[in-house]
Amino acid sequence: MHYIIQILAAILTGTAIGAILGQRNTFLLIGSIIAIALGVYTIATASWVPLVVGTAIFLLAQATQRDPAAQTK
Question: Taking the alpha carbons of 34, 19, 56, 44 in that order, is the dihedral positive or negative?
Fold first, then answer.
């Protein structure tokens, strides 16, 4: 079970790094940095609680983004 948690944490960390590279707003940047920190912590400890919190923060940061093309219509 520890390996599955660590793989999911690696996926969260990689996705958050990709979100930082394509940064759109500061809330996404902060949420991604928190998700990366919690993902790395989860890889080290194999605990599922930081994984869940990091995923929730990352998804919340992603949900706050808006498409600029949709606003111009």
Answer: negative
**Half-sphere exposure (CA, 13 Å, Cβ side) for 65?**
17
Q: Which residue has the tokens 């998804």?
A: 59
Cβ neighbour number for residue 32 with a 10 Å cutoff: 25
pLDDT tens digits for range 1-48:
889 999 999 999 999 999 899 867 888 899 999 999 999 999 999 999
SS (H, E, C) the chain: CHHHHHHHHHHHHHHHHHHHHCCCCHHHHHHHHHHHHHHHHHHHHCCHHHHHHHHHHHHHHHHCCCCHHHHCC
Q: Are 37 and 63 in contact (CB under 8 A)?
A: no
